[in-house]
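Hey L., structure's done. Input below.
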Amino acid sequence: MNSPATHIARDASNSSALQLLARLGFAVNGLLHILIGSIAITVAIGAGSGSADQSGALAQLASSPGGVFLLWTVVVGMFALGLWLVVSAFVMQDEPKRKWARRLANIAKAIVYIALGVTALTFARGGTSSSAGSTQSASSSLLSSPGGVIVLFLAGVAVLGVGGYFIYKGAAQKFRSDLAVPGGSAGRAVIALGVVGYVAKGIALAVAAILVGVAAVTNDASKSTGLDGALKALAALPFGTSALILIGVGLIAYGLYCFVRARRARL
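Output:
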């Protein structure tokens, strides 16, 4: 028998207002990825030096005309998407084991989106933040605590697993169940954006995870630099400039896919 809390959660998840705000969340997430991809490309070709991560994207928004309005839109969209994911986690129907796995995945994604909303709120209120600096600080705190090396290493393994899942989801086109794919050439374009976007984001996350693992193994928090450090580390490798440009293009593709998902997501 469904509890009153479940009925409340189901009513909330079916709320047209919350669903509209969740779609806004997908859209602003797409905007951030387009900006991150663009920054990565400019860094690769030596035309820019910004942070190729969420903080860099938000800083770019803050410095643009109407940037404060856009930042507050990001705040609302990220918090709404996080809330919708939490609510949806408790009304999904599935086999018990699979249902709990999906619930945990939804809650984990909600935490990420809410954290992005908090960062966006800092910029919207006129402050600044550094994702790379926050990652280093968190890594340093872990490394200085008992058992912190193991925790940090396991965190790297977890992020590597997420990156691997993104690559799999893109290559196997598992994202198709998340939205109503249009027919014809438009549908083929959406699928292409999804494949390229998910694989590119997965690779970027995998590199970031490796840096976290290196920080744990070497007991050096400065190695853990988040997405920005991961993308810039690619540029230092042989053919790294080309790889970084391709990842940047892929992240832009993921951003465009998010815009499509904002319109056609199955909520």
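The CA atoms of residues 18 and 243 lie 39 Å apart. The chain has a mean pLDDT of 84.

-- N.
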